[in-house]
Amino acid sequence: MEINIRHAVPEDLDAIHEIMLCNGTIRGTMRLPQQARHQTEKWLQPEDGVYRFVAQLDGNILGYSELVTYPHSPRHRHVGEIDMMLVHDKAHGKGLGSAMMENLVDLADNWMNLSRLHLTVWTTNLNAIGLYKKFGFVEEGIMPKYVFTNGAYADGLLMGRVLER
C-alpha cells in the first residue's frame, strides 16, 4: 500500500465530495448529510491562506485535509488551523490520517514558520484525539454543546500545538 499526499486540484472534486458524504465525515464535522455537489465545489474554491490536500492510497483518493492560515493578519500570521482531516469510511486504519497529519505538521513547522497549530474535534472522537496527541497536540479546553449532531449536542475539544523555536 502506497500513500501519496498532494495538493488538491479541481479534478479531485468528485472524490472529495464522496469523502464528504461518508457517515464518518458527517458524524465528525459540521457537514450536513446529502450535501449537494455544488456546495462541495464552492467549498473548494481557492482562498488566500488555505491549503488543501488529498491523500491517495494506491492511486485512489481516500483522504482530504485542509490547513488554514492568516496571511492578511499581521498579528496572527504565526497561527494555522487544521480545519479538516477526513478519511473515507472504507479506508480507516490504513495510515492515511497519520500521513496527512505528518504532511500538515511538516508544512507548518519547516516551510511556513508557523509556531501554533490548533484544531477542534468532538470529545467522542477518541481515535482522532489519539492521532492528534501523537503529533504533539494537547487538550486546551472543552466547548460544551459545540455541535448538534445525530439528534443531540456534542462537546468540542480544542487542541493546540505550540512550537518553541
TrEMBL record:
Q: Which GO terms describe its molecular function?
A: acyltransferase activity
Stated EC number for the protein is: 2.3.1.-
**Species the sequence originates in:** Sneathiella marina
Enzyme class, one word? transferase
InterPro entries recorded: Acyl_CoA_acyltransferase, GNAT_dom, YpeA/RimI_acetyltransf
Q: Name one Pfam family in it.
A: Acetyltransf_1
Tell me which residues make up the N-acetyltransferase domain: 3-164
Q: Know the name of this protein?
A: GNAT family N-acetyltransferase
Q: Sorted alphabetically, which keywords does the UniProt record give?
A: Acyltransferase, Transferase
Q: Which classification does the entry list for the species?
A: Bacteria, Pseudomonadati, Pseudomonadota, Alphaproteobacteria, Sneathiellales
